[in-house]
Amino acid sequence: MTSARQPISTVVFDFDGVIADTERLHLGAFQDAFADRGWTLDERAYFDRYLGWDDHGLVDAYARDHGFAVDAADAQALVDAKTRAFSRHLSSAAVVFPDARACIEAMAAAFTLGIASGAQGHEIVAILRAAGLLSFFQTIVAAEDVSACKPSPMPYLTAVARLGADPAACVAIEDSVAGLQAARAAGLRTIALTTTSPRHALAGADLVVESLAALTPDVVAALGGRPAL
C-alpha cells in the first residue's frame, strides 16, 4: 500500500512493453531456446502467465509449471541460449515505441527518471543508446542488479534508493500485473499501459492509459496532488 500523498519527484519506468516494444521479441527468443528441449511456449501463456518475470524467473516458473527437473546449470544454459536468440531478433527490429522520445523528454524536464526492469542491463543500454535516450535516466536497475525479480519489490526499492527518493514521491510506469505488484509493494504510485496486458488485468493501478502518448508531466504530478512545475 502506498503512503500518504505527496508531490511527485521521480518517475521509474519499466522497460520491456513500456519504452521498448520488445515483449514479442523476448517470446520468440524463449521459443527458440526452448525448442531445442522440445518445450513449447505459446503467446497466450507468455502474456497471461510469464509476463514481468526476468529470464531466470521465467525459466524456473516454466519448469515448475510443467514438472521439469532443471538444475542451476541447465537453467543458465537456457538463459544463455535465450540471450543469444534475443540478440538475433533484436538486430532486425526497431523497438522503441514511437511515443517514447517525446514522453521521456517531457518527463525528464519535470522529474528525475530511472528504470527498474527484468531485462538484462546490456540489452537496455544498447536500445536506449541507439535511440539517443540513455542520458535521460539517472539509474538503471536490471535483472542482474537484484537477487529477486518482479513481483518482488526489490527492483523498485533498489531504483528508488539509488535515486535518493522517497517511494511515496515516486510513480512507476508499468505494463504487467507482476510489475504493478512490485511497484505497489515498494510504496510507489502506479500508472499502467495497455501495451501488452488488457485493461481489466491492470485495474489495480492508480491510472491506466493506452500509451506513452497519454502521459504528460501534469498527468503524473496529479497523482501527488499537485500540478507539475
Account of the 3D structure:
Strands 3-2-1-4-5-6 form a six-stranded parallel sheet, with helices on both faces. The chain has helices spanning 23-35, 43-50, 55-66, 72-90, 100-110, 121-131, 154-163, 177-185, 217-222, and strands spanning 10-13, 112-116, 139-141, 170-174, 189-193, 207-209. It is 43% helix and 11% strand. By secondary structure, it is an alpha/beta fold. Helix 3 (55-66) crosses helix 4 (72-90). It has two domains: 10-21 and 95-222, HAD superfamily/HAD-like (Rossmann fold); 23-90, Orthogonal Bundle (DNA polymerase, domain 1), CATH 1.10.150.240. It starts with 9 loop residues before the first strand and ends in a 7-residue tail after the last helix. It is globular and about 55 Å long. Strand 4, helix 8 (177-185) and strand 5 form a beta-alpha-beta unit. The chain contains nine helices and six strands; from the N terminus they run E-H-H-H-H-H-E-H-E-H-E-H-E-E-H.
N-to-C span: 26 Å
Shape: globular
Enumerate the strands of the largest sheet in spatial order, edge to edge or round the barrel.
Answer: 3-2-1-4-5-6
For CATH, the homologous superfamily of the largest domain is named as: HAD superfamily/HAD-like
Q: What proportion of the residues is helical, as a percent range?
A: 40-55%
CATH architecture of the largest domain: 3-Layer(aba) Sandwich
Question: What class would the helix/strand composition place it in?
Answer: alpha/beta
Let me know the largest β-sheet.
Answer: 6 strands, parallel
Low-confidence parts: none
What is the fold named in CATH at topology level of the largest domain?
Rossmann fold
Gyration radius, in Å? 17 Å
